[in-house]
Amino acid sequence: MAAQPAQRLARIQHSSLRDLVVDTIRDAIIQGKLKPGDKIPEIELAEQLGVSRTPIREAIRILEQQGLLNTRPKNGTYIARLNPAEVRDSLLVRASLEELAVKQALEQATVEEWAALCDALEGVVHGMRHALEAGDTIAAIELDTKFHTLLIDGANNGYLSRTWSVVGLPFLIWAPERELYPLAEADSTIAFNERHAELVTVFRTRDTDACTASIRSHILRKLVDVGASAAEAETRPRQGEEA
Fold first, then answer.
1. Which letter, b or e, does each residue of 143-158 get, where b requires 16 or more Cβ atoms within 10 Å of its Cβ?
2. 212 and 99 in contact (C-beta within 8 Å)?
3. Which residues contact 77 (CB under 8 A, 6 or more apart)?
4. Strand, helix or coil for residue 145
5. Which residues pair with 3 in a beta bridge?
6. What is the pLDDT of residues 21-52, one digit of tens each?
7. Average pLDDT taken over every residue of the chain
8. Which residues, listed in sequence order, are joined to residue 77 by a DSSP beta bridge?
9. Does domain 14-79 fall into CATH 1.10.10.10?
10. Which fold, 84-235?
11. How is the chain split into domains, by residue range?
12. What share of the chain is helix, strand, coil (3-state, %, to 5)?
């Protein structure tokens, strides 16, 4: 019997390499390996990752659009620092998107469909808890992203989902989120998980006003924390100054 020809493997797409670089830089930011204000060394990154500078530059453009990086003309690219005004605006936009998603999902879903969505969300919350207990910050933040994306997609509004992928999603993995709520700290870990569990409890009531109010509060609570963080930064002595 003639030997069967070996099945050809799919060619690696250029965009896939770019996405891998995006994920690698994003994860380094989340883990604190790259800190706000650090300069992105394109040549060094290309050497470390074993890729050309082209996917590095493509990844930088994507991360800049997401607010994770800032490019300064003739100076280089840096990890974005906390900007209270920009964070405030982004949170207001994100809250509006998620409120709309919850409202539309409740209007369209049957009792069974809404219960299934709540079950899925609860499963994600359990996954978050296990990830946090294992100290896996990356997995916890990815599950946080999944939680809120499930809500958005539950509205069955393609335009809303596309808008969310550009506007809302980056702010779940943005460096200020990690700075405000460091998941390595036990208190933050408990609060992070409990806040999502409380959302699911409210969602199971199917009370539209309560559900939309809870998701808005869940997101906009950060406005107070952002203001407090900015005020603390103002009182902190600058480099070279005495405390």
1. bbbbbbbbbbbbbebe
2. yes
3. 39, 40, 42, 60, 64, 69, 70, 71
4. helix
5. none
6. 988 888 888 777 888 889 988 888 899 899 99
7. 81
8. 71
9. yes
10. Four Helix Bundle (Hemerythrin (Met), subunit A) (1.20.120)
11. 14-79, 84-235
12. 70, 5, 25
* Choice among 56-65, 94-103, 192-201 with the minimum mean pLDDT: 56-65
Tokens for 153? 């997609």
Which tokens hold the place of 208? Answer: 């539209």
Query: How far apart are the C-alpha atoms of 160 and 162, rounded to whole Å?
Result: 5
Q: Following DSSP, what letter does each residue of 49-111 receive, concatenated?
A: HT--HHHHHHHHHHHHHTTSEEEETTTEEEEPPP-HHHHHHHHHHHHHHHHHHHHHHHHH--H
In DSSP notation, 28-53 reads HHHHTSS-TT-B--HHHHHHHHT--H
